[in-house]
Amino acid sequence: MSRVATYLLRIMVASLLCAIIKHLAGDKTSVGKTVGWMCGLFLCFTLVSPLVTIKIQNLDWFWEDSISQGEEYAQAGNLQAREELCSIIISRSEAYILDKANSYGANLTVEVTLDSAELPTPKSVTISGNISPYGKRQLQNAITQELGIPLEEQIWT
Amino acid sequence: MRRVLILIALLFVFAIPVKATEISPPEPPEETVELLPAQQSSFGKDLWHVIKSAIEKMQPNLAEAGKVCLSLIATVMMVSLLRGFSANSGKILELVSVVAVATILISGSQTMISLGAQTVEELSNYGKLLLPVMTAGLAAQGGITSSAALYAGTMIFDAVLCTAVTKVLIPMVWAFLGLSVAFHAAKEELLGKIRDFIKWSMTWFLKIILYVFTGYITITGVVSGTADMAALKATKLTLSGMIPVVGGILSDASEAVIVGAGVMKSAVGVSGLLVVLAIWISPFLQIGIQYLLLKATGGLCGVFGIKGASAVIEDFAKAMGFLLAMTGAVCFILLISVVCFMKGMGT
Questions:
Q1: Which of A116, B5, B163, B301 registers the highest number of CB atoms within 10 A of its CB?
Q2: B188-211 pLDDT per residue, tens
């Protein structure tokens, strides 16, 4: 039985006891009045005494636990969203380069990597396949100017 | 061939993938599966399915509750008849009627009280599975601060309420019933006053916790929602200052992630709302019917002039009312919280 249940049971038993004693003693006689007063005192003691012994524990952990858990789940969601964002950016950047390469008649394979900034942007690209020197120059320019990947981060294999 | 390749490449460029993050609803508790629709359609239809199934499931309990009420009426009628034969033994008959009525009601009430406690626990357990998913969903949409604050607040209020219900309020309901029976049997005013105090404190506690929760949700929604909105605006500003093509790709990708996460979060939210309602509705209907039947029986018994017995029946009805309030409060906290998660930032 929990402490609260015990406390409530005590109150119930005490009230019942007081009620029976008061009933037997009656209200009008002086004995009855004294008994009533004593019963009141006894009930007060039963009600108050367990409350005095309550020790308020440090409740900070409770709040901090919930906050840290909330932050943990929020971070997990944010991380998932970021992974999704990265995969979309990579696939769309690669598609953009492939589209450009196709317009120069080249059939390439492209692998884009992103930086680790808050808002991920294309950092480097590895390009393999055959392309004419003119097409390569045009593609390098497009990648530099439109995707922001500098020439030294464009690896041709 | 070349044209086909270009077309495929262009499809890749212009297609906005709406594949969202892995946000899926938690498994509903076994008992609720029969109430939930096999396949989700519209929220209204699904809700009606849940209510309809719960009502169908409740019919045997209704018959049981009806039997209890009939036996109560029969008891009170018997006592009333006996009082007519022996006018001098009124006090003893009153005492006997109170004890008899309490004895008839106690087992049914025990079942209802256990049901109420179990429902509160089930709701809380499901909330512990659902809220992390909703938190992740809202965070994926950019509401990192609001989701964490909303989660923390809901979990704290839920934990406080559940602990209070199982450890304080349920024993208080028993104490209320015990004191009520004792008061009507002994006619001692002191017992009645303590019973009223217990009733007042239970009502007060539930009211206060719901007021504070609603206040917390409102304030948190405004404060943390503003912070998240500011962060999103800052991101948009950064995007607008980027090289057009990269900026366009990033903007579309962010939009796709936000839309995808929103869609998934809403789906999880709707499913979660239905499960929460499915957990809550059956016990609510059972306890609610018991409450109404006891209220009606109490009123009916009053006609026979056995005041003590009818007052005891009404107090048992009030105890059912407390159970309704407790389960309702836990359900309310979860529903409001899920709706706030679904609504997103600035709730």
A1: B301
A2: 787 888 899 999 999 999 999 999
Q: Which of A147, A80, A81, A83 is nearest to A110 (CA)?
A: A147
Nearest-Cα distance to chain A for B274, in Å, is 23
Tokens representing residue B326 in the block: 């407790």
| Most B-contacting residue of A20, A57, A65, A88 (CB-CB within 10 A), to test interface | A88
Instruction: Identify whether the C-beta of residue B327 lies closer than 8 Å to the C-beta of residue B119.
Output: yes
DSSP per-residue codes, B194-235:
HHHHHHHHHHHHHHHHHHHHHHHHHHHHHHHHHHHHHHHHHH
Q: What is the mean pLDDT of residues B128-155?
A: 88
The minimum CA-CA distance between B152 and chain A, rounded to whole Å, is 5
Tokens of A18: 């007081």
- Secondary structure of A45-82 in the HEC alphabet? HHHHHHHHCCCCCCCHHHHHHHHHHHHHHHHHHHHHHH
Statement: residue A85 has pLDDT above 80: yes
A residues 80..139 contacting B (CB < 8 A): 80-81, 83-85, 88-89, 91-96, 98-99, 102-103, 105, 107, 119-122
Tell the burial category of B51 from Cβ atoms under 10 Å away from its Cβ (0-12, 13-18, 19+).
Answer: middle
Residues of A in Cβ contact (< 8 Å) with B5: 102, 107
**CA nearest to B22 within chain A:** A80
**Average pLDDT value over all residues in chain B:** 84
Q: Is A44 exposed, middle or buried (0-12, 13-18, 19+ CB in 10 A)?
A: exposed
Q: Strand A122-130 vs strand A107-114: parallel, antiparallel, or unpaired?
A: antiparallel
pLDDT tens by residue, B92-116: 788 888 888 988 988 888 889 999 9
pLDDT tens digits, residue range B303-330? Answer: 887 888 899 999 999 999 999 999 999 9
ipTM for the whole complex: 0.72
User: Cα distance from B80 to chain A (closest Cα, Å)?
Assistant: 25
How many CB atoms neighbour CB B275 within 10 A? Answer: 26
Q: Which of A84, A96, A104, A143 to mutate to test the interface with B (most CBs of B within 10 A)?
A: A84
Which residues of chain A are within 8 Å of residue B132 when distances are taken between CB atoms?
A: 69, 73
Span A33-63, pLDDT tens digits: 888 888 888 888 887 787 777 666 666 667 7
Residue A53 CB partners (closer than 8 Å, separation 6+): none
Residues in chain A: 157
Q: What is the pLDDT of residue A58?
A: 63
Q: Which pLDDT band, with edges at 50, 70 and 90, does B17 fall under?
A: very low
Question: Rounded to a whole number, what is the distance in Å from the CA of B134 to chain A's nearest CA?
Answer: 9
